[in-house]
Write a structure and sequence with these properties.
- It is a single chain.
- Helices cover 49% and strands 15% of the residues.
- By secondary structure, it is of the alpha/beta class.
- Helix 5 links the parallel strand 4 and strand 5.
- The longest helix has 18 residues.
- It starts with 7 loop residues before the first strand and ends with a helix.
């Protein structure tokens, strides 16, 4: 609503709540917002579908399970070199400093999320910095060469 001249495409991939698909079109009545619903996709199709994404949002509810499980997609988003806006989960705070390439938020705070997206639009230097830092984090801390021995050691324990 705050930026009626900005055309926005929201891609929603997969569904948890069967009622979500029916509820979503009611929540967005702006002419400049298009919502694309996609069901579950194969991993290859998923990668193709998200490759032109500008900002990744992963706004999962803060439940006991979500709060203690690190979303693996976070690493995929960072590998694409794009900023993220994620639910403020304990598991993420424990592993990664999101502030280097995005923001953690209350997933129910639509106003805060909207302001953060607007901040990227108004501050292209911040956007570009977060893009670069996302790729740098993956290259320096989470590439196979860096994690191979630790990962193999973890697996062989079992």
């Amino acid at each position: 609503q705050s930026r009626p001249s900005l055309d926005i495409l929201v891609r929603i991939i997969g569904w948890r709540d069967p009622d979500s698909k029916e509820k979503m079109p009611e929540t967005v009545s702006q002419k400049n917002v298009t919502i694309e619903h996609t069901g579950r996709l194969s991993f290859t199709d998923y990668l193709k579908k998200i490759e032109d994404t500008d900002i990744f949002l992963d706004l999962r509810s803060i439940t006991l399970e979500n709060n203690h499980c690190l979303p693996i997609k976070l690493f995929l988003y960072a590998a694409y070199g794009k900023p993220v806006i994620l639910s403020d989960l304990k598991a993420i705070k424990k592993e990664i400093d999101i502030s280097q390439f995005g923001f953690s938020v209350n997933p129910e705070s639509t106003e805060e999320i909207s302001k953060l997206i607007g901040n990227y639009i108004d501050n292209p230097d911040l956007y570009n910095d977060h893009c670069l830092k996302a790729r740098e984090m993956i290259a320096s801390k989470y590439n196979w060469g860096t994690i191979k021995n630790r990962f193999i050691g973890f697996v062989t324990q079992f």
